[in-house]
Each structure stands twice: as C-alpha cells, then as structure tokens.
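Practice problem 4.
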C-alpha cells in the first residue's frame, strides 16, 4: 500500500514537472544579452509607457491612440512578416515613483521588443536605467537633456532637448519678438527647472534681462496670484511659462484678471487643444514651441491627420505625431533587421531622414533627434503656425 502511494506520488511529481516546463517558455524573448525576439502566438509586442491617468493623462491618451493607429495600419497590410503587432500599455500616472514599476513590468516581459515613452521627463529619467539593463530600446519624447547623457545607450529621443528648445525660444523672443525683459514662471520638476535655467542663460547671453523667476508645483498649485503679483511688479515685456497646459491656462486667466498684460511664451508642454478649452480667450495670442502642426506638411502628414480625425474625431497633437513616428520607426527596424531589440537599435543608429509625419528623422551620436522647433500661437481660438518661424 505504501509502495503504491509512493509510486503515485512520483508519477504526480513527474506530471507537475512536465506541466511547469511547458508553461514556463519565454516566448522567444531574451535578456539584454540575448535580446527579445517578439511575442508568443505569432505576435510582435511593443509597449507604451505614459500618463494614462492624472494631470497629464491627455498626453498619454493621445500617444496611445496614435500608436494604436499605426498598429492598425500595419496589421491591415498583414502585419510584419505575417505577424500581428500588439500594444501593451503601462500607466505611470505622471509620477516618477510609479514609472519604475511600469518599466520593471515591461523589462520582465521578454516579448516586449521596444518601449515608446515616458512622456514626463522625470518619469523617463526614473525608468531609463531599467530599460537599459534589459536591453530594451526606448523611444522617448521627454525633453530633459540627461536622458541622452550616454549612461543609458538604449535610449533615443524623438523630441528636442529642453536645452535646444529653450535656446531656440530665447532667440526667437529676443530677435523675432523684440523682447528685452523676461519673467520666468516654471514648474518645480526636471522639465521646468531645466527649461528655466537654459532659457535664462540664453536670453541673458543675447542681451536680455531676466527680471523675475518664480516657481510652482504641477498638479498642486491653483492660485498663482503670489507669483504673478511679484512678476507684475518687475514690469516685464515677456513672461516665459515653463510648464504644462493645465497650469498655463490658469496662469493666463489669473494674469488677465489681475491686469497683468504681458506677452506669454510657452513650451511644447502646452501644445494641446486642451490649452484653449481650459484657458478660453485668456490664452489668445500666446506663443509656444511645438514639434508638429497639421498645416506644416511632410510626406504622410496629411494622411496621418485625416486617419486620426476619422478614427478618433480629434485633432492629433505634437505627441500623437511623435508617438506615431516612433511606432513607424520600430516597425521599420523590425522589417530591416528582424524581431530583436538589437536589430531595432541597429536600425535607429543608422537611420537617416526617416520620413516622419512631424518631419525627417535622424539621430546624432548621442541619440538625440536632429530637428528644429515649430513656433505656434493661438489665433481666433485655434492653434496655428506663427507668422515668423525660427531661422
């Protein structure tokens, strides 16, 4: 009797071992050394990390929609090498404490070939090391210059650095707008602090004067009257707001209410139709940077805009365009070099003038995109290209 029980136990253990072996297959993926090689069941997996909830959710939502559109388009053509492309989404809530959790989830999934994200610079900086350790190519539109400082070579930037953006805006303000006395109001995170420092340096080197520099906290500050009162007392002819559209809309409204009549200048962080919805006529005339506008056409721009409108009944913003281009770059890398993380990065290292809807894409030796800003403004309640652009 005992012997029968013993053999029964052995048989059960063998069956369990076989089952566990069958269930633990890695789907053809790999670590940094081996490289991922696509998903299971004939799928190719790319991931999107960004703020799907929280104050920056508008941007995460638009990026996710653009990636979905790119995936739908390639799947309608039969996918890549006959395989369907799928998107995994991770919500970092715009919080740098949550971003590493999202990155870890993707890093542990050997099927993930590449990641598009994060949107917030602080989130990207908090997560980039995890992707690099796993050998996962990261295509980010975060602007903080530290992203491409050489310590995480798997990171590629599809937007301009905050330094390049701030320098271009400072030159535009001084030379094109004729401004000489600037006040700066910036959000107290990596994005805002970097822009504040770089804009101030560039503006002063051109001969301008920074007469005030005030800060606020994204998602927390609602009453800007203390900062605006100080700024009003310095009599600036320009107020550079280094932040996002929610706070910028409030700043514009409160400036209007307190009689602070000053030209506002913003960054790509406010390049969204939500700015107008929230700010109303108070944001009329604001000038800001962008990396894309539907009326500035490159090959494929018109088709992308029309397809996005048809699918979502929305206008694509800067980040939708950059996410769409990022997905297309990944697809091209897989088509050229096969289903591996290394193959995608090899393609990104070698690509030149890729036909993106936001303009041709090439990367320099630091993995920074080579492009210039687009200067936009709000006119008659719509975002349009400014009459004068950067040289």
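Answer key:
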């Amino acid at each position: 009797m005992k012997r029968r029980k013993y053999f029964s136990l052995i048989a059960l253990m063998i069956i369990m071992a076989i089952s566990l072996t069958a269930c633990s297959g890695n789907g053809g993926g790999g670590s940094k050394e081996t490289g991922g090689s696509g998903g299971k069941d004939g799928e190719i997996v790319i991931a999107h990390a960004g703020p799907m909830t929280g104050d920056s959710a508008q941007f995460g939502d638009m990026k996710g929609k653009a990636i979905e559109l790119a995936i739908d388009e390639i799947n309608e053509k039969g996918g890549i090498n006959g395989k369907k492309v799928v998107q995994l989404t991770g919500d970092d809530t715009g919080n740098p404490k949550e971003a590493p959790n999202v990155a870890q989830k993707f890093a542990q999934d050997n099927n993930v070939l590449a990641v598009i994200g994060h949107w917030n610079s602080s989130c990207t900086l908090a997560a980039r090391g995890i992707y690099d350790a796993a050998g996962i190519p990261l295509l980010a539109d975060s602007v903080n210059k530290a992203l491409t400082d050489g310590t995480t070579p798997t990171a590629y930037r599809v937007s301009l650095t905050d330094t390049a953006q701030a320098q271009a805006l400072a030159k535009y303000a001084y030379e094109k707008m004729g401004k000489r006395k600037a006040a700066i109001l910036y959000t107290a995170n990596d994005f805002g602090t970097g822009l504040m420092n770089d804009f101030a340096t560039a503006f002063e080197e051109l001969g301008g004067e920074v007469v005030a520099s005030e800060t606020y906290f994204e998602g927390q500050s609602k009453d800007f009257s203390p900062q605006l009162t100080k700024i009003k007392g310095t009599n600036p002819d320009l107020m550079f707001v280094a932040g996002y559209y929610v706070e910028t809309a409030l700043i514009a409204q409160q400036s209007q209410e307190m009689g602070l009549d000053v030209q506002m200048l913003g960054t790509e962080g406010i390049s969204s139709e939500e700015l107008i919805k929230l700010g109303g006529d108070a944001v009329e005339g604001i000038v800001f940077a962008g990396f894309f506008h539907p009326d500035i056409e490159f090959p494929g721009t018109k088709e992308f805009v029309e397809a996005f409108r048809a699918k979502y009944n929305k206008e694509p913003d800067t980040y939708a365009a950059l996410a769409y281009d990022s997905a297309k770059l990944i697809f091209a890398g897989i088509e050229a070099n096969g289903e591996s993380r290394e193959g995608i990065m090899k393609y990104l290292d070698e690509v030149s003038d890729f036909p993106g809807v936001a303009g041709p894409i090439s990367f320099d030796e630091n993995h920074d995109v080579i492009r210039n800003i687009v200067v936009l403004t709000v006119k008659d309640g719509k975002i349009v290209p400014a009459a004068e652009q950067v040289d």
